[in-house]
Task: inverse folding
């Protein structure tokens, strides 16, 4: 039996009663720890709260050893795979595990929870006015992927808002690790709203299709669903210097066809 | 103090620990009961589970008496407004209450939960490949609103899937009630996947823009997130005769640019 359990967005209290019941019944617990983080709590604290050991499932484990470590075990025992947010809120990884489990005739139960994909509704923009979600990844010297630009263009032409999910780099091996095969990682990095805006403006500067610009109305969000949640609305340029604090950050590019009610709501979060 | 508390999608066990803590602290509890329902449980049973009385907040109460009954009370006491799914998953009503509460300087805290808008990810279609969500309302003799057609067209042209939220009619006053001012309601009605498809095909038949047709790949979903959840994928025509059982139902029109992994996942739910 494999439970895929959404943890919600904040800390240990954001699990559902159904989720906690499932956790209690598990013989082994894995925490997916590379597509998102729980801002309010560590894996160790979460384990103490459950009274159970939690094994960190990093990218390596999930992509190369999931079958052996998680799925084989789930054939005989009850295994819980814990996911920040909703199990299907973000990454394809979780669908992949379910597909593989089903091929192995393992019983799978999904326990849903809040995801950033719906919690962003808290800023007052209506979820049904959002188009396709885009991912903004950290630019490097040699890799500056800008496929999001075309998607944002489609959304804005159709009158949709765009949610931008910002990059997370956890357990990225260092160059030395890759060359010499040793275990050594860069410190974790989480993209800020500010970096996201810089990258967006750089791409607009290159493409010059005027999909958006410094005057486009946007919303920056940090730690949505936690007690330190921060939401600020303003133009892209205005938000460039706002300090959103600790991760995780998200960003919304509003449609120019924004509704009156949505505008009124955003006023509460207007940049000072 | 006003808590807006998401209940999730199934029954009393889908509330989060944080949500339950808030419920316990409330002097008064209202359940929003006209944009959605909890398939697995009634208001009375929910109240027994909490050990508290829950007042039903129907459309009339929320739209005309929210200020007096909910907000004035929240100025002095702790009031909980319970919402099926996530507080911002679906209706503008909830944003409206928050805006009004903020204007009255009432402290508002939102407790998120799963919403149909993200839980549909369970069928294997990736959430970020969805465009704008549309609402399909019951056609009547004289009122056959089809504004969804244009939105589906935009989504499909842009390569997005479309989530269709299906109409719910709860506490709709009868003609007699409206004429004579008495309290009398039609029995509750919930749109089925089948009715949704009939309406969609009728509109295509009239508009003839070939936005979709009987051969378009779709997914019907019922009672998502509950133990009786049913998901079936197939062409619009194939799904026309599938019995999805009890409410609530949802419907997805897939993009023709569906990814390989999404297709593989949908195979699990293929119509027999």
Result:
């Amino acid at each position: 039996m494999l439970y895929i359990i959404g943890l919600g967005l904040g800390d240990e209290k954001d699990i559902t009663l159904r989720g906690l019941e499932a956790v209690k019944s598990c013989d082994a617990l894995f925490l997916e720890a590379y597509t998102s983080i729980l801002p309010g709590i560590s894996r160790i604290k979460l384990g103490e709260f459950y009274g159970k050991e939690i094994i960190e499932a990093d990218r390596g484990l999930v992509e190369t050893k999931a079958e052996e470590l998680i799925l084989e075990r789930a054939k005989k025992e009850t295994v819980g795979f814990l996911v920040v947010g909703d199990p299907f809120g973000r990454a394809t990884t979780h669908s992949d595990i379910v597909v593989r489990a089903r091929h192995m005739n393992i019983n799978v139960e999904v326990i849903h929870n809040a995801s950033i994909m719906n919690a962003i509704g808290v800023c007052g923009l209506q979820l049904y006015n959002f188009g396709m979600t885009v991912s903004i990844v950290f630019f490097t010297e040699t890799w500056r992927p800008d496929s999001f630009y075309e998607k944002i263009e489609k959304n804005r032409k159709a009158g949709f808002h765009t949610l931008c999910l910002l990059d997370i780099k956890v357990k990225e091996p260092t160059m030395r690790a890759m060359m010499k095969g040793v275990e050594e990682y860069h410190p974790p990095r989480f993209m800020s709203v500010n970096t996201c805006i810089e990258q967006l403006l750089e791409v607009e500067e290159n493409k010059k299709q005027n999909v958006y610009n410094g005057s486009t109305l946007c919303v920056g969000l940090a730690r949505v669903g936690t007690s330190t949640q921060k939401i600020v609305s303003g133009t892209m340029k205005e938000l460039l210097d706002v300090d959103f604090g600790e991760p995780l950050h998200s960003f919304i590019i509003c449609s120019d066809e924004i509704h009156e009610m949505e505008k009124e709501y955003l006023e509460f979060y207007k940049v000072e």
